[in-house]
Design brief:
The complex is a heterodimer of chains A (about 350) and B (about 250). Chain A is built from 13 helices and 16 strands. By secondary structure, chain A is α/β, with parallel strands linked by helices. In chain A, the strands form 3 sheets. In chain A, strands 2, 3, 4, 5, 6, 7, 8 and 14 form an 8-stranded mixed sheet that branches. Chain A is globular, with a radius of gyration of 21 Å. Chain B has about 250 residues and is α/β, with parallel strands linked by helices. In chain B, helix 2 links the parallel strand 1 and strand 2. Classes of the chains: A alpha/beta (about 350), B alpha/beta (about 250).
C-alpha cells in the first residue's frame, strides 16, 4: 500500500501522471495552483510537458491542439479562470476531443474569494460555453477521490471522446490527506483513428466543429445528443448512506456530502431516520438514485455552497413529490454539521433529544 | 504532350471557394508547393482560423485542425508540443491573428514556439463583410469605419511582423506580397524559409502576406492589386525583417 500525505491538488496532479497524461497546459490561479506547480516539477520526469500559457484561453486551446493529436492532456483552474476556458470547452465538446479539465471552485461571482464554494454548479453542469453540449462532471469529496476520479476521468474522456470535468473546491484542493496512489488499470478504449498526427501512409484527417449548412449542423447536433443520452443512461453515479429506511434525505456533493455524513450519523444516534444521497456525477445527474426515493421520503434538504443550484436538479429528479429545502453557506464559508442538523430539525419539526 | 504545370500535391482537388480576385488561392498554392517541395505533406498538421480561410482545412492535403477565433496559434502550440517531430503551421487572417489572437501572436513568439504562422493581411475582416481590422489603414473606409479610419478614435494600424520581430524567440519574420509574379516568387521563398526554420528547430517563424479583398474593398481584382501596392506597401515594412544566422542563404 503506497500511502502519501499530500494536498488534494497534488493528488489530482499525481493521478494525471499515473493516467498517462503527457501534456498539461495551465495558468496559475488560487486555489488550484498546486496542480500546475506539481506537474511542472514531476511531469517532465515522466516524459511529459508542461507549458504555462499566457492565460486560461491559451491554455484550454493548447489542450485542444494536443488532444487533436490523440495525446492525453489536462488543464486545471479555478472559477474566474474556468470562466475564461468556456470558449474552449464548447469547442472541445463540438470537436469531440478528450481533455480532462479541473475546476477547483472558489467563491464568486466576480473575483469572489479564495474559500470553497459550489457556485459554479450551473456553469459546470448546464453549459458554461455556448451551444448545446454536455460534460461528464465528477464531484470528489475527499483526497482519495480526487486521485481516483482523475485517474478514471482520462478513460471516460477517451471512451466518449468528450471533455471530462473534475469539480472540486478550495477546501478539497488545499487539504492534505493520506492518499493511496493506486496504479492505473488499463482498460480497453476506442482506437483514436481520428487523431491528426500527420497523414503519412493514410488518408488526410481533419478536426473541426463547423457545419457549412444548417442540415449538416442538425446532423451534428443529433449525433452529439445521442452520445450525451448514452452517458445519461450508463454514467450516473452516486453514493447512498443510511438510505434503506430513510424518512428524510440530505443531498450534497463534494465537501457538503462529506459534512452531511456526520449530520446523518448524529441524527441516527438521536433516532431520526435521516439518510444521504451524495451525487458523484453532477452531469449526468443521478436522477435514478433520487427517483427511487420519491415515494419513500417525507422531505429533502440539499446542502450546498451556493444560493441554491443543485436543488433544481433534485426537485426535478423527485418530481417535486415532497418539499425540498436548501441549507447553504456562501462566499467561501462552510456549514458545520450542527448547523445543518439544527436547520433540518427546524425545517421538519424534529425534536432533538439534546441540543447540538 | 509533356505536362509542364499541374496542381501541387500540397493541395486537394477541391476547387477554392474564394471570391474572384482574392489572393488566398495564390497563398494556398504557395504553401502547398512548399510542403510538396520539402516533402513534408505527410508530416505536417495545419491549423485553420475562423474567417474566409476557415475552410482552408479542406484545401490542403495535410492533416488539419480548425481552431476558434484567434486561437490558431495556441492550438498549434498544443499540437507541436504533442508532436515535436512534425511540422505545424497556422494560417490566419489579419483579424484573427492581430485582433482577437494578439495575446497568442505575442506569446508564441516570446516562447520561441517552434511553429510557422502565415498571416494573410487584407486590412479588413473579410468574412464578416469588411469591418475595420487592426490592420485597416488610416482613412480607409470599412463598414465599421464608414468615415475612414480615424487615428483619434482607433489609432493607427498595427504592423504585427515589426512587433513580433522585436521578440527574441521570433527566429524568422518576413512581410511579403502576392501582387505581382516577382513578389509571388519572393513570397514563396519566404514561406519556404519559414518552414525550414521550423525544420531546423530555430524558433518561431512568421510570414505576413499582403493580400487583396476585392469584394469588401469594392474594387475589381486588378484595381485591388493596384490599391494594395499604392496604399498598403508603403505603410507596412516589407521584406525579411529577421533572418537567423543559421538559415542557409538560398
Amino acid at each position: 500500500m503506497n500511502k502519501v500525505l499530500i494536498k488534494g491538488n497534488e493528488a489530482i496532479a499525481q493521478a494525471a501522471i499515473e493516467a498517462g497524461c503527457k501534456l498539461f497546459f495551465g495558468y496559475p490561479i488560487t486555489p488550484s495552483t498546486e496542480v500546475v506547480e506539481y506537474l511542472s516539477k514531476h511531469l517532465p520526469k515522466a516524459g511529459g510537458t508542461v507549458v504555462q500559457g499566457e492565460d486560461e484561453v491559451a491554455s484550454i486551446n493548447m489542450c485542444y491542439g494536443a488532444a487533436a493529436t490523440g495525446a492525453r492532456v489536462m488543464t486545471a483552474s479555478s472559477s474566474p479562470g474556468f470562466s475564461l476556458k468556456q470558449e474552449g470547452m464548447s469547442y472541445l465538446a463540438a470537436a469531440e476531443l478528450p481533455v480532462v479539465v479541473v475546476n477547483v471552485n472558489r467563491a464568486g461571482p466576480g473575483l469572489g474569494g479564495l474559500g470553497p464554494a459550489q457556485s459554479d454548479y450551473f456553469q459546470c453542469t448546464k453549459g458554461g460555453g455556448h451551444g448545446d453540449y454536455r460534460l461528464i462532471v465528477l464531484a470528489p469529496s475527499k483526497g482519495q477521490e480526487l486521485y481516483d476520479f482523475t485517474l478514471e476521468a482520462f478513460d471516460l474522456a477517451d471512451k466518449y471522446r468528450n471533455p471530462v470535468l473534475i469539480l472540486a473546491d478550495g477546501f478539497l484542493g488545499q487539504m492534505m490527506e493520506p492518499i493511496e496512489l493506486k496504479e492505473r488499470k488499463v482498460v480497453e478504449l476506442p482506437v483514436k483513428d481520428w487523431a491528426t498526427t500527420g497523414c503519412k501512409g493514410r488518408e488526410k484527417r481533419k478536426i473541426a466543429s463547423y457545419a457549412l449548412t444548417n442540415e449538416v449542423g442538425e446532423e451534428h447536433c443529433l449525433a452529439w445528443q445521442k452520445k450525451f443520452d448514452s452517458m445519461r443512461e450508463v454514467e450516473q453515479r452516486w453514493e447512498e448512506f443510511e438510505t434503506a429506511d430513510a424518512e428524510y434525505l440530505l443531498v450534497g456533493y463534494g465537501t457538503c456530502g462529506r459534512i452531511a455524513k456526520s449530520v446523518v450519523l448524529e441524527a441516527r444516534r438521536q433516532g431520526i431516520k435521516l439518510g444521504l444521497i451524495r451525487p458523484i456525477t453532477l452531469w449526468p445527474f443521478p436522477e435514478k438514485g433520487l427517483a427511487a426515493f420519491k415515494n419513500q421520503v417525507k422531505g429533502i434538504i440539499t446542502v450546498e455552497l451556493n444560493a441554491g443550484q443543485m436543488i433544481e436538479d433534485v426537485k426535478l429528479a423527485v418530481e417535486c413529490k415532497m418539499p425540498v429545502h436548501l441549507c447553504s453557506r456562501q462566499g467561501g464559508m462552510l456549514p458545520s454539521d450542527n448547523e445543518i442538523l439544527n436547520f433540518a430539525a427546524k425545517t421538519f419539526g424534529w425534536s432533538l433529544k439534546e441540543g447540538v | 504532350m509533356e505536362q509542364v504545370f499541374k496542381r501541387t500535391a500540397g493541395l486537394t482537388e477541391l476547387p477554392f471557394h474564394y471570391c474572384p480576385g482574392c489572393t488566398h488561392g495564390i497563398i494556398h498554392r504557395l504553401i502547398g508547393e512548399v510542403l510538396a517541395e520539402l516533402d513534408v505533406i505527410g508530416d505536417t498538421v495545419g491549423v485553420a482560423p475562423v474567417g474566409c480561410a476557415g475552410f482552408s482545412l479542406d484545401f490542403f492535403s495535410c492533416d488539419f485542425v480548425g481552431a476558434a477565433h484567434g486561437r490558431a496559434q495556441a492550438v498549434a502550440t498544443g499540437i507541436k508540443r504533442a508532436l515535436p517531430d512534425k511540422l505545424v503551421f497556422s494560417y490566419q487572417g489579419d483579424g484573427d491573428i492581430a485582433a482577437i489572437g494578439t495575446a497568442h501572436a505575442i506569446h508564441v513568439a516570446a516562447r520561441g514556439e517552434n511553429i510557422t504562422s502565415i498571416m494573410v493581411n487584407n486590412a479588413v475582416f473579410g468574412m464578416t463583410g469588411g469591418q475595420m481590422a487592426p490592420t485597416t489603414l488610416l482613412g480607409q473606409k470599412t463598414t465599421t469605419s464608414p468615415y475612414g479610419r480615424d487615428k483619434a478614435l482607433s489609432g493607427p494600424p498595427i504592423d504585427l511582423p515589426k512587433t513580433i520581430a522585436t521578440l527574441e524567440g521570433a527566429a524568422y519574420v518576413a512581410a511579403v506580397s502576392v501582387d505581382s509574379p516577382k513578389n509571388i516568387a519572393a513570397a514563396k521563398k519566404a514561406i519556404k524559409r519559414a518552414f525550414e526554420v521550423q525544420q531546423q528547430g530555430l524558433g518561431f517563424a512568421l510570414v505576413s502576406v499582403l493580400s487583396t479583398c476585392p469584394t469588401n474593398w469594392g474594387l475589381s481584382p486588378v484595381d485591388s492589386l493596384e490599391w494594395l501596392r499604392n496604399n498598403m506597401m508603403p505603410i507596412y515594412q516589407m521584406g525579411e525583417l529577421k533572418v537567423p544566422a543559421e538559415v542557409t542563404k538560398a
